[in-house]
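User: Here's a structure from my thesis project, written as structure tokens. My advisor, Dr. K., wants to see whether a designed sequence matches the one we expressed. Can you design one independently, without my sequence as a hint?
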């Protein structure tokens, strides 16, 4: 299969997107940091199913990594990523250098979320969502697509980007897509490749804790503290897991929910060895849906 067209420069990327749109075609956009796996590819397929054209960006964004995080070691491999995309009929891959996104190495204008970054992952990753919002705000100018596709795997990120699009009047529809999992339930992640065999076996604990939450919700439990206690018990049965948080919040406002009335995001973050993993489920009790 032919490799997709690769763009490294911003003006050419924008021009290519605009050229499709000027012919009346819609463009779907999938922002990623590369090291593509089935989770990313599912977003590309969703974008493809709803749009005439699909662009993807591959950029390991330095400003969303906190000091001491894995920016240097984050997996990179454009050749492999392009090969994975070759069977998916992608119309453009925007793969800029750091110096293209941040020409003088400095950022003097950030997009900073309010409140929505004050819990969950925002607590242990100060500045992370500022980095995410800033790069996504830039990417949405460079790839002025009709729709953007994000994974619910990063539920806080999805909520923050949805709100940013609303607050800043971006003419783009954000589509949040289901979590793609390994056969044992572990949510796919580029960081899973850091896990050694023993850690990989234990990493399923996050999913198991969410399965327990699912059971409790289905059985009618509505008190968040009881669900969190049970989830922590499940997680503690995996000796390599160190819990960072187990939280139940509203999926849009991300505010803590002591009692689950209708919609809830049940989110967990933990370290397995040195690798930080996150996972979640979303429940809508009005429709009875519990999405793992
Ligand atoms: P990343 O490359 O990790 O920044 O992720 C790029 C996009 O892929 C984000 O919108 C993620 O939420 C999404 N994504 C990552 N892992 C998964 C997964 N297992 N299932 C669905 N979407 C995912």
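Assistant: Designed independently from the structure alone:
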């Amino acid at each position: 299969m032919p490799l997709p067209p690769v763009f490294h420069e911003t003006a050419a990327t924008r021009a290519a997107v605009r050229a499709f749109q000027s012919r009346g075609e819609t463009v779907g956009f999938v922002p990623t940091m590369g090291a593509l796996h089935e989770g990313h590819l599912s977003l590309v397929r969703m974008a493809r199913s709803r749009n005439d054209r699909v662009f993807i960006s591959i950029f390991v964004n330095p400003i969303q990594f906190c000091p001491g995080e894995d920016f240097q070691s984050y997996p990179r491999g454009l050749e492999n990523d392009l090969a994975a995309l070759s069977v998916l009929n992608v119309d453009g891959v925007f793969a800029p250098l750091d110096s293209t996104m941040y020409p003088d190495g400095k950022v003097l204008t950030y997009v900073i979320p309010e409140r929505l970054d004050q819990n969950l992952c925002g607590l242990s990753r100060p500045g992370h969502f500022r980095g995410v919002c800033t790069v996504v705000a830039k990417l949405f100018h460079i790839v002025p697509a009709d729709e953007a596709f994000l994974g619910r795997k990063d539920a806080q990120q999805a909520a923050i980007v949805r709100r940013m699009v609303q607050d800043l009047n971006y003419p783009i529809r954000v589509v949040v897509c289901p979590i793609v999992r390994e056969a044992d339930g572990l949510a796919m992640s580029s960081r899973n490749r850091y896990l050694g065999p023993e850690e990989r076996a234990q990493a399923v604990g996050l999913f198991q804790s969410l399965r327990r939450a699912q059971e409790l919700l289905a059985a009618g439990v509505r008190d968040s503290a009881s669900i969190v206690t049970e989830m922590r018990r499940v997680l503690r049965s995996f000796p390599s897991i160190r819990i960072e948080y187990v939280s139940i919040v509203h999926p849009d406002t991300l505010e803590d929910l002591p009692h689950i009335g209708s919609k809830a995001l049940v989110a967990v973050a933990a370290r397995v060895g040195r690798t930080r993993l996150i996972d979640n489920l979303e429940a809508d009790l009005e429709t009875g849906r519990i999405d793992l």
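When you compare it with your expressed construct, this may help: The mean pLDDT is 98.
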